[in-house]
Amino acid sequence: MARHCLWGPLALLSALHNGAWGFTFTSGPVPRRASTLCRSISDTSSSAGVAIEESSGTDSPEKLRVVVVGGGWAGYSLCESISTNSNVEIILLDAQKQAKGGLAGGYRRSNGRPAEAGIHGFWREYRNTFAMMECIERRRFATKDFDKLRGVTCVAVRLFLKPDTTTTSNLDGGSHGMTQLPPEMAKAMKDSPIAVCGASIGGIDELQETGFCFYDLQRMHDEFSVGYQKANVEEDAQVAVLEVDFYRADAFVDYDDDAIIDLALRAVSAALGTEKISADAIVDSTVIRARNAVSHFAPNSALYSPDVKLDKGLYMCGDWVDRTGHASWSTEKSVVTARQAAASLSGDFGLIDSQCEVVPAAKDTPQLTVLRQATRLLRSVLPPKTLPPSPWVLAKQLLSGERGA
User: Fold this and answer.
1) pLDDT tens-digit series, residues 70-93
2) Is the pLDDT assigned to residue 219 strictly greater than 80?
C-alpha cells in the first residue's frame, strides 16, 4: 500500500497565509459520479494533511484513493476531472457542511439575506469555468518565493434598497432585463448590470488608489429579480440590490459601516453622474472587510507562484498557483490549474479516463493588443522606479508626466 500526500487548495492556503487568499473560491456541488464520495468535515484543521492511497482487495480491482482538501472551484474541478475513472475513489473534504470554498462562498444572515464578498457573475472569457458548469449540468508548503506574493485589501458592500416606484425594463447584458433601481441609474447602466471603475473617480480622496466594481443584482441573481420577487416575496419585503466591491481599499477598510456605505453611494453617484441614493432608501446592508485577501497579480508575481505539481503525489491548484501557458485569472485560473493538476496526477498514476482538457484562452482583441504593445514600450522607455501602486495609477502618472524617469 502506497501513500502520496495531496494538499487541496483551501487547507493548504490557510496553512500558508491564514486563509487570507480564499477570495476566488465559491460554492459548487460535489461530483455526482458513482465513484465519487464527499464527506463534509466541520472540524478540518487548516494544516491537516491528506493522502493518495493505492489499495487493493481480494474481491475488487486495485483502486486509487484520492483525498482532496478544499471544495471550492479548484478542488471541485480537480475531482470532476478525474472522477471519470472507474478505478478511482475520490473523497472531497471541506471545513463547511456545504462545500463553499472559503470567503467567496458567503453566508446567509439571520434574516435570510445573503452576504458575500466573492463571485457575483463570470466574465465571458472564463471558458473553462463555463465548460465546468456545463459538465455539472450534464452530470504548509512554500512557493517559489511565497513571501513576495501579496494580497490586496477589499471591501464588499451590499445594499438592499426600497424598490423605486418605476420599474425600468428592456435592459441589456444581464440574466434579467428589469430593475427597480432609480431610473436614471438604470438608464446609465442600460448596456450592462456591471460597471468597472479605476482609481480617482470623482476626486474622492479615499479612492485615489482604489478601483471598484458595482453590480445591479436584480439583473444578475434570480432570487433578486423583479419577476421572482413579485411572484414569491411579500410586497413590503421586496428590494432592489446594489453591490459595490472596492479593491486596494486600505485607505478606508477601518471606517465604520455607515461611513463605508456613504462612500459606496458617493462612488456610484460619481461614476454614473447620477444623483446619490439617499441613506433613507436603504432597507438593509452588509459590509465585509477582506484584509490582504485577494490575490495580487502584479509584474513578475507568477515567478513566485507554486507549480501545480510539487512532486509525484503532491499537487496544488487555485488562483495563486502558476497556470503556465494559459492566460487566465481568478475563478478561471482556479479551474485551469485544477485541470492541469488533474492531468499531472492522471499521468503519474496511469488514469486513462480523466477529462483534463483545458480550453484555450480567447485571443487578444485588437484594442488589447495595442494596449499591451504600448505598455511594453512605456516600460522600456520609462520604467517605474518601484512596483507601481496599481496599473491604472501608473498609466495615469505616465500620461500626465507625474512620474519621471
Assistant:
1) 877 788 788 888 888 888 888 887
2) yes
Q: What does the alpha-carbon distance between residue 123 and residue 372 come to, in Å, rounded to a whole number?
A: 20
The pLDDT of residue 312 is 81
Most confident of 140-144, 326-330, 347-351: 347-351
Confidence (pLDDT) at 82: 85
Please report how many Cα atoms fall inside a 13 Å half-sphere around the Cα of residue 331, on the Cβ side.
Answer: 28
pTM for the model: 0.62
Taking only the tens place, the pLDDT of each residue in 294-310 is 777 666 677 777 888 87
Which carries the bigger pLDDT value, residue 345 or residue 123? Answer: 345
The answer to whether residues 243 and 267 touch, using CB atoms and an 8 Å cutoff, is: no
The answer to whether 135 touches 106, Cβ cutoff 8 Å, is no
**Distance in angstroms (rounded) separating the CA atoms of residues 338 and 135:** 14
SS (H, E, C) the chain: CEEEECCCHHHHHHHHHCCCCCCCCCCCCCCCCCCEEEEECCCCCCCCCCEEEEEEECCEEEEEEEEEECCCHHHHHHHHHHCCCCCEEEEEEECCCCCCCHHHHCEECCCCCEECCCCCCCCCCCHHHHHHHHHHHHCCCCCCCHHHCCEEEEEEEEEEECCCCCCECCCCCCCCCCECCCHHHHHHCCCCCEEEECCCHHHCHHHCCCEEEEEEHHHCCHHHCHHHHHHHCCHHHCCEEEEEEEECCCCCCCCCHHHHHHHHHHHHHHHHCCCCCCHHHEEEEEEEEEEEEEECCCCCHHHHCCCCEEECCEECCCCCCCCCCCCCCHHHHHHHHHHHHHHHHHHHHCCCCCCCCCCCCCCCCHHHHHHHHHHHHHHHHCCCCCCCCCHHHHHHHHHHCCCCC
